[in-house]
Every structure is written in structure tokens, then in C-alpha cells.
């Protein structure tokens, strides 16, 4: 059974980073033990839900005592795969792609972008935030030879499916897609779509309601 099945829902997985950020803050102030009730209060969640989410990482708290903070941090990082870096290729070094190349927080979350690819001759051969920009037609062979399993797509919608096909041909098994289009990938390939417009829509609606209230 895979980790998602054990959690029961992607919503639970999405909550784990919030737990981890809070636990890091708790550790910084020298606190060794934390209760599920405290976590629930700080994150405005139900304590029962917190215990269920944390149980999926394989750790259990002590009744009337709580969780050992360092052990819980380790359990969450291990469950998420953030305790070891996975190398990734990024395709599309426009504004968003360049920004992602410069984001230092990825390595703390278990992912290291080691190279970027593009079809623009004006970008190929450059270095962006210390990452070499290579021609896209080199990706398939390099991914196979370097055993790269993660890819990031930051190209336009009309280019995204072609890039996904190139990644799959190179043996990449997990694709983080920022292009505004749903990808068609073979069974067994993971494609996580990040729809920035959806987040903007939610923010816009909340803003309108706030202004109307």
C-alpha cells in the first residue's frame, strides 16, 4: 500500500508541511514535547484529525503526554521524502522557471534542480542561478543516463504536453506541471498540476466578499 492510500486523502498530505513548520518553530524555542491539542489549536484544526494525520507517518504519541518533537519532525520528513534530496530537471526558463531555479527552499524539501532546459537559442548555454540551461533535445538521454525521476514543467500550455512526452521518454516518473493545461501521461506516471489561476480565483472571490461586507 502506498503512502497516499495510507493517509486516506491528499488533504491529509497537504497538512503535513504545516505541522512540520510549526514543529520547527517549537523546536527552536527548546520545547521537547508537544500535544496534538496544542498543534490543533495553533493550526485551527480538530485534534482528532491531527492525531490521524500524524499516525500515518508511523509515529504514535504517548497518552496524556504527547509527541517527542524531534522524533515527530523526523517521521514527517521521512514520510514526505524530505530527508534526502531527489534530483530534478526543469523545462522552461521564463520568468516562473527562472524564479523556481532560484528558490533555495526546494532542497530543504527533498528536491534539487540540477539542470534546466529550453528551446530558445538565446537562453541555451547560459547559467541561471547556477544551473546550466541546455537544449530540450538533450533531456531524454541525460535523464536516462543520470537516472532522473522528477521533472518540472514551466512552459506555455501549447508546449507542455510535448515536454511531458519528452520527460516520460527519458524515464521521468513524477512531473510537477505549472503550465495551465492537464497532461496526458501513461499509467504509473505521476503528474501534479499546479493551477495558479485557481488560487487567484479563490483569492479574488474572498477579496470581493471582504470589500462587500
What does this structure look like?
The protein has ten helices and nine strands. β7, α9 and β8 (174-177) form a beta-alpha-beta unit. 24% of the residues are buried. It has helices at 3-7, 10-28, 36-43, 47-55, 69-80, 95-101, 105-108, 139-146, 157-169, 196-212, and strands at residues 33-34, 67-68, 86-91, 111-118, 127-128, 131-135, 150-153, 174-177, 190-193. Residues 3-7 have low confidence and may be disordered. The chain has 213 residues and is an alpha/beta fold. The longest helix has 19 residues, at 10-28. The chain starts with a helix and ends with a helix. The strands form two sheets. The protein has a seven-stranded mixed sheet. Strands 1-2 form a two-stranded antiparallel ribbon. α2 runs antiparallel to α5 (69-80) and α3 packs across α4. The protein has two domains: 3-80, Orthogonal Bundle (Arc Repressor Mutant, subunit A), CATH 1.10.10; 86-198, 3-Layer(aba) Sandwich (Rossmann fold). The radius of gyration is 20 Å and the shape is globular.
